[in-house]
Each structure stands twice: as structure tokens, then as C-alpha cells.
Amino acid sequence: MDIPAALSRLAPRLSSTATTALNARRLSGGASLETWAFDLDDGTPLILRRRPDAAPPRETAASLAQEAALIVAAGRTGAPVPIVEHVCTPDDGLGEAFVMRRLEGETLGKRIARDAAFDAVRPGLARRCGEVLAQIHGAPQADLPPLTTSDALGELARYEAVYREQGADRPTFEAAFRWLEASAPPPLAPVLVHGDFRNGNLMIHPEQGLVGVLDWELAHLGDPAEDLGWLCVNSWRFGQWRRPVGGFGDDQALLDGYAAVSGREIPLSRLRFWQALGSLKWGVMCLMMYASFANGADPSIERAMIGRRVSETEIDLVLLMETLA
Description:
By secondary structure, this protein is an alpha+beta fold. It folds into 2 domains: 3-101, Phosphorylase Kinase, domain 1 (2-Layer Sandwich), CATH 3.30.200; 109-324, Aminoglycoside phosphotransferase (APH), C-terminal lobe (Aminoglycoside 3'-phosphotransferase, Chain: A, domain 2, Alpha-Beta Complex). Helix content is 44%, strand content 13%. It has helices at 3-14, 64-76, 109-114, 122-137, 152-166, 171-183, 224-231, 251-262, 268-294, 301-307, 310-324; strands spanning 21-26, 34-40, 45-50, 84-87, 97-101, 191-193, 202-205, 209-213, 220-222. Strands 1-2-3-5-4 form a 5-stranded antiparallel β-sheet, with helices on both faces. Strands 6-9 form a two-stranded antiparallel sheet. The N and C termini lie far apart (54 Å).
């Protein structure tokens, strides 16, 4: 598929003052979806997010039309999200895709957590993340496309089923499944959950801070603490393990920001439960990625490298179980 040519044909529909698309280039990152940056000849900076024809959506992933609708719904709450310009139709020749306004900032988590360029905004990021999550969770469900609903025990059962299918024998995971099953908190009324709110899916500007929440394909209805806990998983701290929120802040600032906007407090113990469940989920995902490399389904070295991170999640789980027991 000639993506640049298709974008040029689409350009007049994206802006009344544009005639063609310029500088179309595919960006790195994204295991299942493609991201292209391009400009219109009237100077409008845009992003194309599309699903390759040979890549069926994950069972629990939203369609790209749903993802676009979720971004629009989140934007109505005041949450920082890109402006959706166009949801593609078959006539556009781009497959399943949508176009959004391009934001300026950084998404590489290691740079956000460590580089001096972000020193000025880093101290306020944890609280700001809490505020933004409260906005997202407050989205009226009548404004949302159809979504799946999950809770703690449902998520745990789903990932245990995946783990059993792998035929793995990991004592730490076995202990974590039983421990989490026994300590699951009572369910709360479900809210819109981003599903992958972490350092790496946030656009951070070195002066403006958090300017965009990206990658909504795993959004669903669920426990608000799921997003809070996922942000605190050690794997998203990029070596800054003393800063539990994304490698840039502390969890009390995150919870304070959430309470200030939502009007309700999430106990730290509930966040910690979901943090532990997030670590276990990521560990199972790492097992799956290594298995796809080992059986030849995906020969990329990236899959093999991610597989080694299983041991990291086991260390995290042991520490959490010791701390919270």
C-alpha cells in the first residue's frame, strides 16, 4: 500500500486549504499498529494511526474507530488528548485508520524520567497524571462506544488462563495468582479505564508538561485503580525505581491529584493491589512474547529481548507480596 500517495489524495478532505500531503514517514514503535507523521501543504501537522492489513486486532482491543471515539469523549472531559480530524472510510484507501493532530513533545519514557530537559516539569507530573486520570474516569458512559467491562478477579482469571496456555512453570507467578485472588478488593462502579496509561504512552512537553494521552486501544470499563496501579508498575520507571509513578514522582502526589479532581480518594492499598496485578500481567505478556519468538511465529529480536523481562516482574512481585502481606 502506498501510504504517502493515499495521504495526498486525502489531504483536501482534511483541510480546505490543503492540496497534498508532505513528509510522510513512519514512526518507530507500536507492535500491532502503524503510526505515520505527515504534514499538509498548508502547514497542518498530522498523525495517521492505522492497522496493517495483515494484523488483526487483539481480542480485547478496540477498533480504531472506537479508539478515535474514545479520544473525542476524553477530550470533552478536559483531558489532554490529540484532536481527531478524520476517521478513515474504505474509499480513503488506508484501511482501518484515523487521522489526528500531531502534538509536540516526547514519548520515550527513559528520556522523560531521566533527561535534564524535563527537570522543570518532572516534579509535577505525578499529580498531573492523577488529575488527568480523574478526568478520563469521569467521562459519561453514554458518550462512549461499546466497551468490554472487567474487574480485578476477571482480569486475574483472564491472565491466568493465558499463563496456563503457555505451559509455563514459574513459582513466583503461581504464588502471585493465589495471593492476588485472596486479596482482591471489593469491586467499584466501573468507569472508563484507559488500560495502558503509563510512561511511554504519555506525550510530555519540557515546558508544558503532560500534553497528550495516547494509545487508547486497550480502553474498557473497569476499576479506576487499574490505571493508577498500572502507571506505578516498576517496568515503566526506566531505572528510576525510587520514583514509583512512572519513574518521575511519588504515589501520594498521584492520589492527591486524583482526589482533587474526582472528589473521591483511592486508598494506597487498592493502588498497590492493581500495581501487583499489573506486574503479573506484564510478566505473562513477556512470556507470550518470548514464546512467539521461540516457536518462530515472530522472529524479531525485540520479542526475545522482552522475554528476558519476565525475571524483572518476578522480583517486583516478590517485593510487593513481602510488603503487602
